[in-house]
UniProtKB/TrEMBL annotation:
Residues 23-87 form the RNA polymerase sigma-70 region domain. It comes from Parabacteroides acidifaciens. The keyword Nucleotide-binding does not apply. The keyword Transcription regulation applies. GO terms for molecular function: DNA binding; sigma factor activity. This is RNA polymerase sigma-70 factor. It comes from the Bacteria. Belongs to the sigma-70 factor family. ECF subfamily. Pfam families: Sigma70_r2, Sigma70_r4_2. Residues 122-173 form the RNA polymerase sigma factor 70 region 4 type domain. Gene3D superfamilies: 1.10.1740.10, Winged helix-like DNA-binding domain superfamily/Winged helix DNA-binding domain (1.10.10.10).
């Protein structure tokens, strides 16, 4: 049974190394994505996440007031990233895709695997074509499984704006994939 984030966080701030390690393993990748969204640097994003977890470990019991640990972690990483930006630490952008998804094929046939791979590429291209804020909202919903209210808090936008971005993302991805699929299918018919 998976331990709740509140229980895990409370154990970690009381000095439980195992709980702290599990908390870090559970959230570091997600928090890295958020930091990278602001910093566009792998190194700085990793540093921002480590800074936040260092504070959690060092301040320990002084964080007992935190009632929503997940929200606390996301907002702390966002604030740390913004602090780096204000201090001028951000210099050049990495070319690193945070929005890759993995589809698991239903069967092991080579033809099915090839079609799944082509579909995955189309979906990834569709996600990459989204506007930056829309792409980040979509990733926070899809990958990090955050609730709309949590995304609104993390990105400092309204919940209504989050809903608009999500609807826009699904619509644009569907349109893109359908358009590309029709072009590929039309091309295949020409070859026959």
């Amino acid at each position: 049974m998976e331990e709740s984030i509140i229980s895990l966080f409370n154990k970690a701030i009381r000095g439980d190394e195992t709980a702290f390690r599990l908390l870090f393993e559970t959230y570091s990748r997600r928090l890295f994505h958020l930091a990278y969204y602001y910093l566009h640097s792998r190194e700085l994003a990793e540093e921002a996440v480590l800074d936040v977890f260092t504070v959690v470990w060092q301040k320990g019991k002084t964080l007992s007031y935190v009632k929503e640990p997940e929200r606390y972690l996301y907002i702390s990483v966002k604030n740390q990233a913004l602090h780096y930006i204000r201090r001028g630490y951000v210099q050049e952008k990495d070319s690193y895709s945070l929005y890759e998804i993995e589809l698991i094929p239903d069967s092991d046939s080579p033809e099915k695997s090839l079609l799944d791979e082509e579909y995955q590429i189309l979906v990834q291209q569709a996600i990459d074509s989204l506007p930056p804020k829309c792409k980040e909202v979509f990733r926070l919903v899809l990958s990090d499984k955050l609730k709309n209210r949590e995304i609104a808090d993390v990105l400092s936008i309204s919940e209504k704006t989050v809903n608009i971005h999500i609807a826009k993302a699904y619509k644009r991805i569907a349109e893109y994939v359908n358009q590309q699929y029709k072009q590929i299918k039309g091309f295949m018919l020409l070859l026959l």
